Amino acid sequence: MSSDSDLRNLGKTDRHTQILLELRLAPHVRVADLAAKFGVTTETVRRDIAELSNQGLLQKSHGGASPCASGTYRALDQRQGECVKERQQLAHKAATLVKDGQTLMIDAGSTAMEFARALAIIGRQVTVVTNSLQVAMILGTSDSVNVIVAPGRYLNDEAALVGTETCSFLRRYHVDACYLSASALGEMGVSESIDGFGSVKRTMLEQSSAQYFLIDGSKFGKRHLLKVADISEIGNLVTDREPSGELAQALKKQNIKIILS
Questions:
Q1: What is the CATH number of the domain that holds 24?
Q2: Residues of the signal sequence (predicted)?
Q3: What span, in angstroms and rounded, lies between the C-alpha atoms of 122 and 193?
């Protein structure tokens, strides 16, 4: 993660991202501490906090700011409790595919977080570009990982950044591989239920030399509103069980590599 010296003279969007990241790590942040860390005036930090408060992303408190009320992250937290063993196994398998020195893009979500944990535990020496604050924090515990966090519109329930600014930032990079999660996989392709995730995932696919989708079997045969990729664009599917029926036929027809955990 960035040192304090790296945080000085950040632009407003990057300061907002950092403030929200700090509130994932602590119950309260102080205006004076943030001003010193960013190398700006306390008035600037107060304006930052006021803007984030108006967007419903944090709560102003005496001398600083606090996270929004408990329950804000319910959507992501609920998913973290589903298919835990399956996601951990496939995430570990995916991490073994990564080689030291590679550059990666990792998206947001519960499976992406498990993948980040596996990378940190294994100790891979990689550079990761992500739109997930949770992924960034997990990888930030490893001295072997260089983490780059994309800016954008903050989704509080998902601890993730999305939007045109996020995608524009991602297009600055060309990486060796992307490792993406998803809400559903059917014979028509990969789809998402969370607004904003689809465009970020598609951009990551475009900017990567190799593509890996990390999807457990509970999501097979499903389809959500937001299309992410056709079957032909999946590249590699890392999963906990063999697909069956029409999905299996569609994957076989497109010669998609299935990697079982």
A1: 1.10.10.10
A2: none
A3: 31
